[in-house]
Amino acid sequence: MPFPDYAPLFEAAVSECRDVRTLETLIRLRGRGGGVRLSGRVRAAMAAPGLLRLEGLAPFGAPGFYLAARPGEATLWLTREARVLRDVPAADILESLTGVPLGPEDLRAVLTGCLVPDPRPTAGRSYGEVIAVDLMGGAIAYLRHIEGEVHLVAGTRDGLSIEYGEFRRRIPRRVRVLSDETLPGSSEPLTDLTVALSQVNMNVDIPDAAFVLDTLPADVVPMTLDALRRIGPLEAPPEPSSPK
What we know:
Layout: H1 6-13, E1 22-33, E2 36-47, E3 51-57, E4 65-70, E5 73-78, E6 83-86, H2 90-98, H3 104-112, E7 121-127, E8 130-135, E9 140-146, E10 149-157, E11 160-168, E12 171-179, E13 192-202, E14 221-222, H4 225-231
Parallel strand pairs: 6-14
Antiparallel strand pairs: 1-2, 1-13, 2-3, 3-4, 4-5, 5-6, 7-8, 8-9, 9-10, 10-11, 11-12, 12-13
Helix pairs in contact: 2-4
């Protein structure tokens, strides 16, 4: 059914995430990204416009990788392999790491529950308790009332389905990302990745220097995106085989 009063409900649902200009959080990844099983913890810092820093945390010792990105510039340093990737868009690096093709601004919007940067509603429909809101650019947001508050609980954009849960002040702490593309010979999505956020700090000051990797060891060797995909710094270790 058409739902003409979609705009105020949508604005209520995104009232918190719209105001997030910076985000610091610990990300726990589990699932499948681009057909590869992933598992890991990543320390993340994001800021508008388009600033990103990721640190791939290891069970012990220094981070396994650092990624720093600014508009038009991104650097990935794999510390253990002494490899560096430059002159590649941040979205391509993120897709190689996680299987999810999102740039820094889109990643911040997805993780904070806005689905897209600067979401602008254009139409609404109701499906029982769920309200679907079309957004400028082609994304669709799905709203539902939870404990008296309206939340953006799911959405679709750019060949991805996003599911949100465990809200605190309308900001999700759990994000699930699924791709429309499926595994070869299967109906399962190529990407089915669950992201848990903890230690969340919003709108804190983050120095500009955090988003630049200026000084790297002299022995680092340039690499390509294909090499990054083969190394797979977030790839889960093989599961132990069952004893016979």
